[in-house]
Model the fold of this input.
Amino acid sequence: MSDAVAAAWKAIGLHKDPTLQDLFAADRDRVEKLSGRIDWGEGDGAGGILLDWSKTHLTDGLLADFEALALACEFDAKRSALLSGEVVNPTEARAATHTAQRGVGSDADVEEAAALHRRMQMLIEAIHDGALGEVKHLIHIGIGGSALGPALAVDALTRDLALVDVHVVSNIDGLALEQAFAACDPATTLVAVASKTFTTIETMTNAASALAWLEDNGIDDPVGRVVALTASPGKAVEWGVDETRVLPFPESVGGRYSLWSSIGFPVAMAVGWEEFAAMLDGARAVDDHFASARGRDNLPLRAAFADQYYSRIRGCQTRACFAYDERLALLPDYLQQLEMESNGKSVTAKGEPVSGPTAPVTWGGVGTDAQHAVFQLLHQGTHLIPVDFVAAIAPGDDLDPAHHRILLTNCFAQGAALMAGGNMASDGKDLARAFPGDRPSATMLCDDLDAAALGALIAFHEHRVFANAVLMGINPFDQFGVELGKKMAKDIEGGGGDFDPSTQALLAAAGVI
Ligand code: F6P
Done:
């Protein structure tokens, strides 16, 4: 850690901890100062998202010291490196060009992304026009970043209408694939095999079983029903997919950042190209904001200031995200990979041990369900857990407006209650009924949860993750932590490996060796 970084952290650590209530009482402009909007589009396509961080412990003084930290960490230069396609993933000597998929990056990266998108759009439109016969179902096979984004976006955006019925299958547990088979007619089913590397054992095993299922059900040319989505097109062709149905994406797009590339194929198949493009546009609005806003006015960076404050100064080991919208039921799952696989590290980008905690555990659920399950601990437990609330002003349902009104009032009431605390006992003294309060939350409120808003929400989190990584001095774009377990499983499959007695006994008990 450089002297400047150490000095900035020291200054941050010296701040007193006034309560949230005190902070509001002391500053009439707090909501205005700590809320911001990112807007996009015009006319019918206009939308935006309000990001309210006023119920966190950030103060003018803390923000100034975090800005000094960002300066000491060379945030501006690192952001430019990211957005101009320089190497930002030193362990793999790679750039991270996911924003180029949305039109923000070096000319060469943006042009390459646009050309690949045109190819993807042409194939999708040809399929919709019947080039591969009638297509009613799409089984999308992938795992991790090749599944979580598509699953979230398809679930969020096809509640009213889907041009094809999409089933995302990730788990190697055959039950997952069987469930998709049961819902699909093989004669009208396409299979998308999504894998950046085209080697992942779960995906390749599931893909082989999907081909067998098609064949067993009378499809003459099963591999002719496959579209491959990959950064290793040669491997897909080797596996048997005709080049015309291989949709590549650049190696520099990381798996958990790949929804915007051809990995988004099932989304575009289900919602149509225009809506997919709207999702990219919403993300781009956040890219534009992230690229130009400075210091505390940069909303992903501001969120990272709060994240760092809670994890490093207040010792919070988890952060929770509750989506008050059924359409975002899969958002916490998506964020888990994005945040934990990116920033769950113990070494800096220079390969030295980190000096403090890195990514907290991301978890969450949907409101109001979670209120009746886990909120007890949030309000009265001994852990301090910063909470993110996500909601939309426009309802997603056509029922009595009471549904959406109650949903939103509950969302806002939870944030207010976490902060205010109080005592529900009639005498005000019963500790079992006491709420300590002063528990932080942030609220992300979309005008409407359409494709653009979903894109914006995801891009906001991508940049928040990057900003956190810069402040911690770590590389968010590699993921070597997933390799050892994979290798050991492979060793067992290959009949090798020298395992501990417990593992040997489990393998023997299950009869797998
Ligand atoms: O095991 C982790 C991981 O490498 C993720 O980073 C990635 O999203 C996932 O596996 C799937 O990898 P692939 O797209 O290459 O199949």
Observations:
- The chain has a mean pLDDT of 96.
